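quick q for whoever's on today - can somebody do inverse folding on this one?? i tried earlier but teh output was garbage lol. tokens:
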């Protein structure tokens, strides 16, 4: 059995990405649970990532100097030594990525004067697959960051004539990325239990909704404007095609993106989505926006889960501290007033779901106390419906293995 070394927000700091500084262990070496195994660097400081489980370092998926998005799997720990653990480091690559028998090119810092190239993980992966040297590109993103669109615009280097044909990564087609959109009051780290279980042949893209997490877009009170802001961010990242996964408010946004036509949506996974009925728990919205202590916030966070799942001790205190650092609750109050006036969902998306001609699933916890699971029956006959016993409003946190399996099925079908 393997255990992912997952990159999440550390110390309450919101981050979009980090740079791997060093690994304290080599593949094949023993590690103890809690022992520092990798050091990463944020915009503010270096952070130490502990081993989540005792065992043996099996894989290093991000090399020193490479950039990784929040939610990425940096490496894997196995219960037993792996025969492949001593393989050359060049076989490692950002995760998740398509299988590739071609050795990875030398790190840019070693190739050209030691200068570190700033690029998104998706841009790095595509550049590697096409034989494009990132040093030759001029990034159009913030602070010159190279994005996928910059790689797409570059001419690929010719491949050696004797190169062996690449082995297929599996049935997932063209490694179209999976875009994850979280719910009201959450941020991209809400997917931390699911992302490590997503097929390694695809790249996960985690988006913070406007007014949430590390988004530089403030409160937006009109649903159509929220959708437009997310579409603009996807465009900025150079994403023209994707599998979409959305939860709650993010589910409504994902469904609306299908109708907008700005990107080619290959498949859609909706988890307790907004937009399929008018009802929503107004007490939950008010509690999230107005709680001033961990004790008053905790009951509303607990309301998100079913009886079979308990949030970690101290979770409410951590969430509240992060919100207070960014004045998030004021933003939540403004957005709730516009998106859910009178505790009623303002978005009407049943007809969009009915018109879909792509693989789609709706996942809903039968114990959902935020949005009634009965809304799931608004789905048309062509949409797969999965009612999850024992789960509440956040099945991706409560039943991550099943959630990931259903997402992977869609990615293979789309």
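ok took a stab at it. sequence:
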């Amino acid at each position: 059995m393997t255990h992912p070394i997952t990159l999440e927000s550390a110390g309450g700091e919101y981050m979009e990405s980090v740079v791997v500084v060093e690994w304290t262990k080599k593949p094949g070496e023993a590690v103890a649970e809690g022992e520092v195994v990798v050091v990463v660097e944020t915009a503010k400081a270096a952070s130490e990532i502990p081993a989540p489980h005792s065992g043996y370092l099996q894989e290093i998926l991000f090399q020193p100097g490479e950039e990784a998005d929040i939610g990425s799997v940096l490496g894997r720990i196995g219960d037993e030594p792996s025969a492949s653990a001593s393989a050359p480091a060049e076989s490692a690559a950002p995760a998740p990525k398509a299988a590739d028998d071609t050795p990875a090119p030398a790190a840019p810092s070693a190739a050209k004067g030691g200068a570190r190239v700033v690029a998104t993980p998706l841009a790095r992966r595509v550049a590697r697959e096409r034989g494009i040297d990132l040093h030759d590109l001029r990034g159009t993103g913030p602070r010159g960051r190279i994005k996928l669109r910059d790689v797409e615009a570059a001419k690929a280097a010719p491949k050696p004539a004797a190169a062996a044909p690449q082995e297929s990564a599996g049935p997932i087609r063209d490694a179209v990325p999976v875009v994850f959109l979280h719910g009201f009051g959450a941020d991209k780290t809400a997917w931390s239990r699911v992302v490590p279980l997503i097929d390694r042949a695809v790249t996960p893209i985690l988006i913070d909704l406007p007014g949430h997490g590390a988004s530089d877009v403030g409160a937006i009170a009109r649903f159509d404007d929220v959708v437009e802001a997310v579409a603009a961010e996807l465009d900025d990242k150079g994403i023209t095609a994707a599998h979409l996964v959305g939860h709650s408010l993010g589910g409504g946004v994902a469904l609306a993106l299908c109708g907008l036509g700005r990107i080619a949506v290959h498949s859609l996974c909706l988890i307790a989505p907004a937009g399929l009925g008018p009802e929503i728990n107004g007490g939950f919205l008010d509690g999230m926006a107005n709680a001033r202590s961990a004790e008053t916030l905790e009951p509303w966070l607990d309301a998100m889960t079913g009886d079979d799942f308990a949030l970690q001790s101290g979770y409410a205190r951590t969430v509240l501290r992060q919100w207070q650092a960014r004045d998030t609750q004021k933003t939540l109050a403004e957005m709730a007033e516009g998106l859910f006036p009178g505790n009623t969902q303002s978005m009407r998306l049943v007809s969009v779901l009915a018109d879909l001609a792509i693989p789609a699933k709706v996942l809903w916890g039968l114990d959902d106390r935020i949005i009634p699971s009965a809304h799931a029956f608004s789905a048309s006959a062509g949409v797969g419906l999965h009612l999850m016993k024992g789960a509440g409003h956040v099945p991706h946190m409560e039943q991550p293995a099943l959630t990931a399996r259903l997402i992977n099925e869609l990615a293979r079908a789309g």
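fwiw The first strand starts at residue 2 and ends at 6. also The domain at 178-413 is CATH 3.40.50.1820 (Rossmann fold). so keep that in mind when u check it
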